[in-house]
Amino acid sequence: MSENHNNEEVLIEGIAASPGVALGRAVVYLQKQLDVPCYDLKDDQLESELERFDQAILETRAEITQIRDKIANSLGEGEARIFDAHLLVLEDVALLDEVTAEVRNNKKNIEFCYDNVAQRYISFFQSMEDEYLRERVSDIRDVSKRLLHNLIGMKNVNLGHLAAESIIISEDISPSDAADLDRSKLLGFVTDAGGKTSHSVIMARSLRIPAVVGTHDATKKIASGDNILVDGHEGIIVVNPSQSRLFQYGKLATERKKRDDTFNSFISEPAHTLDGASIELMANVDGIQEMEHARNMYAAGVGLFRTEGIFLRHHGYPPESVQYEEYRSVVEAAEGQAVIIRTLDVGGDKIIGDENVKEDNSFMGSRAIRFCLENVDIFRTQLRAILRASMHGNVKIMYPMISGMDELFQANAVLASVKDELIEEGESFDEKIEVGVMIEVPSAATIVDLLAAQTDFLSIGTNDLIQYIIAVDRLNDRVAHLYDPAHPAVLRTLKSIIDGAKAANTPVSICGEIAGDPVFAGILLAMGADSLSLTSSLLPEVKYFIRQIKKSDAQALVREIMRINDSAEIVEKLKEFRQNALGELA
Ligand code: PEP
Ligand code: MG
């Protein structure tokens, strides 16, 4: 909740996660424990505070009535009666008068005063002998919670239908929240938790909206309705930005636009270095809605189709026909270019429900291919849909989270059996469909020779690989500073994977977020990666950068940084390289 009620500027810092600047109205979407704020009011703020109270009562009344009617229709009037009692509590004149008096006398904010009065009522009823009156305690608790939620701007925000263009402020945005989000009205978001590779951040990048994460306490410093500026380049949020701040940002926006225009002007050119080396730049997508942009950015196909978005948007496991249509639409939109469809990567933070539940240590649990091999029916349905979609273009299948040969063999056995089934049914599919695996677990990274010998291609998922190599949860803001792509262990592992793939003549790509960072793109090209797959919005800058460098210089840089033991020094070298390549555009 905002501590800033005098229209003063407040600066909040976090991790710059998705570039861009947004200015707009904050909508606070809280999910966890209610934290009732307490702050002083000036005399001239008392009336508007009481108006806020009236408004919250109206909203709460409408909500309770709506639930009441729904329950009455589905379960009957008897079951709905409890909500009549809630309405009586909400509009209890004695309680409301007490709250109003408390605001006027104590000059504290309405949430604090209401909570105080409600707590007094709860203690009073709790001490009653009469059982009926004692039971009123839970009514008061429920109603006060609902009203406080409305005052603070909590969960009852419907993320799927935002009332107006908004910047969402939340403790965290889970992949299922992200799947439901009303993308048309979302200007940007800020979360207390999260790191640079949280799935909500990946979504923000694909939507080309700013995101600042890992702020620890933005939800306590920003209130719904606050005017805020989110700077996703620098990882800053400004509450109540001043005129001079807005002016300064206006100037920056003009400069950034010039820079973007330069990058965009080369978008249709090939991704060639100055000394003639080339690399394929493909797109990461999570559905048909991203294909138009990917095509406009001249992506050389889809290097990673994250299929779990389809499952999250359907809140379950869609039938084969639904999946087939989704895959087919993407494959057709790619017009003959390759589309690498990754099989379901559920688990970790992506919870669909029923078979798939949140586990302790979920990133090390029944995730991705492990889940699919445990739930073969779900896996088979998806493979059938992918295989059938393969008739409409150039489809490849990719298994996520492979940690050993046995998983690959088991997955391939299911695939072979699904193919047999389709043949028996007379269904056609690409019988030579290529199959690859993601290298995102350290055990897979150390057996690249074995995996490469049994697959058509490899794709390095650095988002997970980094979290597993350094043992740093990619979503945990407390350890986000340890999540370091320039860690010598990460660079050595990347080099050894690429060397292993080259030795086996197996194409290797990188589809984690580092592929969208120009300097990393440069060193991955130098190490020998055949392609990079990245969020389409980052394609222009990466392509421009590659066109400004020589592979031989990038190779020299790789040799140099591989000898450095301190990642901060490595980052300096990378920045220097970037500066030399981009000049004033860096
Ligand atoms: C990765 O781990 O790098 C990756 C691309 O997969 P995701 O981010 O979906 O886990
Ligand atoms: Mg991954």
Descriptive notes:
The protein is an alpha/beta fold and 586 residues long. It folds into three domains: 113 residues, 3-Layer(bba) Sandwich (Glucose Oxidase, domain 1); 110 residues, PtsI, HPr-binding domain (Enzyme I, Chain A, domain 2, Orthogonal Bundle); 236 residues, Phosphoenolpyruvate-binding domains (TIM Barrel). Helices cover 50% and strands 14% of the residues. The chain contains 23 helices and 16 strands. An eight-stranded mixed β-sheet has the order 1-8-7-3-4-5-6-2. It has an eight-stranded parallel beta barrel with strand order 9-10-11-12-13-14-15-16, surrounded by five helices. Helix 3 crosses helix 4, helix 13 crosses helix 14 and helix 20 crosses helix 22. The model has no long low-confidence stretch (mean pLDDT 91). The site of magnesium ion has 5 residues, from helix 18.
The share of residues in helices is: 40-55%
Return Rg in Å. 27 Å
Return the structural class. alpha/beta
Number of domains: 3
Instruction: Bin the strand percentage.
Output: 5-15%
What labels describe this entry?
586 residues, alpha/beta, Glucose Oxidase, domain 1, Enzyme I, Chain A, domain 2, TIM Barrel, 3 domains, eight-stranded parallel barrel, 23 helices, 14% strand, globular, binds phosphoenolpyruvate, binds magnesium ion
Compile the SSE list and pairings:
Layout: E1 10-13, E2 15-18, E3 21-29, H1 46-75, H2 77-90, H3 93-106, H4 110-126, H5 131-152, E4 166-170, H6 175-180, E5 186-191, H7 199-207, E6 211-213, H8 218-221, E7 227-231, E8 236-239, H9 243-264, E9 280-285, H10 291-296, E10 302-306, H11 308-314, H12 320-333, E11 338-342, H13 368-374, H14 376-389, E12 394-399, H15 405-425, E13 434-439, H16 442-446, H17 448-453, E14 457-460, H18 462-470, H19 488-503, E15 508-510, H20 518-527, E16 531-535, H21 539-548, H22 551-562, H23 567-582
Parallel strand pairs: 3-4, 4-5, 5-6, 9-10, 9-16, 10-11, 11-12, 12-13, 13-14, 14-15, 15-16
Antiparallel strand pairs: 1-8, 2-6, 3-7, 7-8
